[in-house]
Write a structure and sequence with these properties.
The N and C termini lie close together (11 Å). Helix 1 crosses helix 3. By secondary structure, the chain is of the alpha+beta class. The protein is globular and about 30 Å long. The chain has a single domain, classed as Glutaredoxin. A four-stranded mixed sheet has the order 2-1-3-4. Helix 1 links the parallel strand 1 and strand 2. It contains three helices and four strands; from the N terminus they run E-H-E-H-E-E-H.
Length: 84
């Protein structure tokens, strides 16, 4: 699973990044993680508002920090998760 957090490095972006990585580890999900702060790369994804959460190339949240429960549900979806 490829997880990306798109954002400028603001507090919300950093919190989302830390939370997503922590939950993926907690759930023992094999993943790669990338924090994207380059504005041209963010715009290329179609994201207008950050932070944004992208899993396997699909923008799942934009402009907000989802709850831990929402993130867990997304990470555990069969279509996007790849367990160790």
């Amino acid at each position: 699973m490829k997880i990306q957090v798109l954002g400028s490095g603001c507090e919300k972006c950093n919190r989302l990044a830390e939370t997503v990585v922590s939950l993926a580890r907690e759930l023992q999900i094999k993943h790669s993680f990338e924090k994207v702060s380059d504005i041209s790369q963010i715009i290329a994804t179609g994201v207008i508002s950050t932070p944004a959460l992208v899993i396997d190339g699909e923008v799942l949240f934009s402009g907000q920090v989802p709850s831990n429960e929402e993130i867990k549900k997304l990470l555990q979806q069969p279509s996007v998760s790849c367990f160790i």
